[in-house]
Amino acid sequence: MANYILFDDHQVWENLLPLTYTRPVSEIRTGILTIAEKWNYYLNTSVSKLTEDYLSRKFPTKISGDDIYINSSILPDNELVEAIHNLKPGEVLLSKNEWLASYGHPKTFFNQHNQSEKKIFSGNYQAIRHLWDIFLLNGKEINRDFGILTKGKSSVTLSSSNRIFGQHPVFAEEGASAECAIFNTTFGPIYLGKHSLVMEGSIIQGPFSLGESSQVKLAAKIYPGSTIGPQCRVGGELNNVVFLGFSNKAHDGFLGNAVIGEWCNIGADSNNSNLKNTYENVKVWNYSHKSFMDSGLQFCGLFMGDHSKCGINTMFNTGTSVGVSANIFGAGFPRTFIPSFVWGGAAGFTTYKPEKAFQSMAAVMSRRNCELSELDKSILSHIFEITKEFRN
Questions:
Q1: Virtual CA dihedral for 256, 261, 263, 267, nearest 10 degrees?
Q2: Model confidence over 239-260: pLDDT tens digits?
Q3: Closest of 358, 342, 354 to residue 392, by C-alpha
Q4: What is the maximum span of the chain, computed from C-alpha positions, in angstroms?
Q5: Are β-strands 233-234 and 254-262 bridged in parallel, bridged antiparallel, or unpaired?
Q6: What angle in degrees, to the nearest 10, is found between the helix axes of 374-386 and 354-366?
């Protein structure tokens, strides 16, 4: 039986910074599941990852000698999986010159492509190539993942105090609960993960996913296309937002067309702009180009790397990119590119030393019964070093 490895193309990995500073591409969540979890389902196995060297101890690669490598930014479907299953040793699967998969290490193909047998995939597929693809594809992926996770299963019955309408289903896993909430499934299904909670007065439009042990706080307003990963607390107004997991936005304030990493906290009454006053396309910082890149989007909000926080009443402008372990506070709009390991706001930033940052991280993680491991510290220390140029 073939062994499957999700391979990170370095250019795509860079395009997805700051989220990928702390994870392989395939650990990004879009829809209900991460990319890796989707492939696990479609391939009926457990995939491993081949990513940046400094992340490899936490995300090791399993090599068997009978290995099929898959582009980690690609989202699976039945047609694509069938084409991958049909690959023979030495063959590579391409689509319009984009490498999708190969039976054998992809560098063999890149270096000796004339010796590999090319197979052309003519079907359509989706991929996460830029940060904004995560929220752009999220509604569609919720629909697909919903079918995977609920097939052959029965939903827990929710309290009769809730109001449910629309043609799509609401599915509640074991331990999920909601009281006096309004669920509108006109535009897509609503998925409530194990032991999740929707508090009174909340209004939620599908497609929507609430992760395991996550909470929607009192009177939240959530528009279509939002995903809340595991162990999050969210409130206020959300529109087409993805929380990867273990993060909080528990109070009022607007967040739209945004992606929030793990172990983040959005202070009370904080807001992001997702539309420029001029209605022009939004530009977002690109780490590989070291400059701002036209997203091609009129609506684009906030991207926040792991372990970053903002104080109350923080205002983020359109297309703001926040790095790993940034602590943002104060009046006014901070800059739209905030590097990793900084402390401050619109008035300027100083370096947030790892030793001090680790104390806060450990305290935050302990609230979810998790631990900041020595391996995590090693990864974060490496990130501190490779992001020095942006703090300067």
A1: -20
A2: 999 999 999 999 999 999 999 9
A3: 342
A4: 65
A5: unpaired
A6: 140
Q: Which two tokens stand for residue 219?
A: 């009177």
Contact of 102 with 87, CB cutoff 8 Å: yes
* DSSP character at residue 299: B
- Which tens digit of pLDDT belongs to each residue from 101-154? 999 988 776 665 556 789 999 999 999 999 999 999 999 999 999 999 999 999
Stated pTM of the model: 0.96
Instruction: Report CA dihedral (216, 219, 221, 226) to the nearest 10 degrees.
Output: 0
Domains annotated for the chain, with CATH where assigned, are 3-127 (3.90.550), 133-391 (2.160.10.10)
d(CA 25, CA 65): 23
Beta strands of 28-121 (E only): which ranges?
48-50, 67-71, 74-75, 91-95, 98-103, 117-120
Question: How far is Cα 75 from Cα 34, in angstroms, rounded to an integer?
Answer: 10
The encoded tokens of residue 196 equal 């999740």
